[in-house]
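Issue: copy button drops trailing tokens. Both records pasted manually instead:
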Amino acid sequence: MQRRRFLYLLPAGIAVGLAGCGGVEPTPDDDWPPATPDDAEPAEPAVPTETPDPEEIPGADEYGTVVDLVAEGADDGGESSIVPLLEEHLGDDTLLFLDEGVYRMDETLVVDGVSELGIVGRDATIRPPAGWEHTLFSVRADRGLRVQGLTFDFDDAVGGRALQLSVGDDLEVVDVTIAGRFEAGPGPVRLDVPEADGAGVVEGLEIPDGGTFESDATGLYVGNRSHGDLTFRDCSIQGFPDNGLYADPPGGSMEVEGGYYANNGISNVRVKGGSTVRGVHVRCDGDHDDEFRNMRGIRANDFRARADADPVVVTGCRIELLDVTYSDGAIELTSRLAELVVEDTLVVVDADEVEGILAKSPDDELRDGEATPRIHCANVTVTGSAARRSAIRVDDRDGCTLEGLNVRQRGLERNGVEFRRSSGNTITDSFFDVTGDPVVLTDATADVDGIVSTHAPPFPFDRTAARSS
């Protein structure tokens, strides 16, 4: 097979470099690429082994050049660094393959300007040295970057980042696991799709071990230079102090499909206007540091308040707040976003004084905008043993519609729906089994119809129209 020697036949527009363990982690604002230490010595390569049949390498038929790194001398026993071989064989339209084994990376690999690059493993584990707290892969690609089938073993590392990827279009991160508890930030993954017409997919990403409160680490961060669309499918992120999935960039839409997000601080899933969260399971059950802040389930936010922003849609989800440090709510609509839609979703709240759904007062920029600040809920169940406050609370938002609610909250002094400074709302075809009031209106109005309550409803219910079970 004809293979390019990347360092000698460097395609126009591509730069590659290494940052040593003592260097500064590359960020979008740093000079690119970072300087290579003069004393960086490549390790001796292992003895080459037989190359697998290209048909056995995942995705091999999609690339013009396929490089089996073990056949080229990579040490699959984890003793010698593979960074020199990665540097040697990088190129456009190239797949770099790591077969089963353990591979050492002791420097940051920095690549700028590559297109159609795949880094694919099959039961391959990448392990940084003990005490590591920098970035392993820092890649800027014009388009077409795939990272697939790799496990990053951070058990002996302090922290840092496994993947920092900026790709104009066609970004794929598939079946990647990042193991080990992070004791220092910034967090294991940062992704940017800087082109507004670009897109990316993250599927089967697992980050199970989280980070300490002191690390202030984020599980997966979509960076502030991202403007394209991203899909997160069947991912699992657990135990990070500063958001699990932080997908609230300046542009693009976020689609979160399936997956499990648990015991993260600030929010488990955070998305921007125009995004959809579908079939996701969120759970906070006490398996977290006691210092974690504001353990919200799904946070509907926006990078900045925009009067024309589309709503966040939460549909078919299960959100459980069983044990938290404290929380603004299982589902929160922040002041930066006008609209939220919640459909066919189960919310379980056992934590006292925590709302199941909370819509905060909108920023001034949203009040006279194109989108009316409001929420719409349909076929939503809020249950659990939470005491005090309300299952659903809406502040300073008019014209909200709640239909098909099933609210069963039996903790002390727990209300059903509470509107504050809000008019023109409707509640229809809903059931309330609460110890407080089914509906609370504070400087607010709401039309109610077809309401079933387990006790005599207070004003403003029509006592003849409301039915008591």
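Record 2 (pasted manually too):
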Amino acid sequence: MDPFVTVHVIAAVALLASSALVGVWGLARTAQVTTPERPREGRAFAQVLQLSHTLVLGAGIVGLLLLAEGHDVADQLHVRVYGPCMLVAIVASYGYRTKDPRVNVRVFSIASLVVFALGLRAFWTGA
């Protein structure tokens, strides 16, 4: 197996795990976040959120390198829809940020669950 394919698959699995974790953790956490003046968002949550966003970008870059090498996917939706929609979900979540940390955690959690769903679908169509 090509090393780029291996890296892409590992990044995809890590992306699925981290985005599912952030989505569920964030939705459970929205009730715990205090007022906007004194947010109690955990560092671990923020780091896992950033990791999931980095994995989306990393998996996308490796996927583009695979395409440049001449690899092809079984279903073009993998390349043309699911990958770009993951990036759009992340960028859109940053656009919906407010001064209220409860809203921010909720928005990023929902975006992470969208990325998780798109990642699952991309995983099924990518083989």
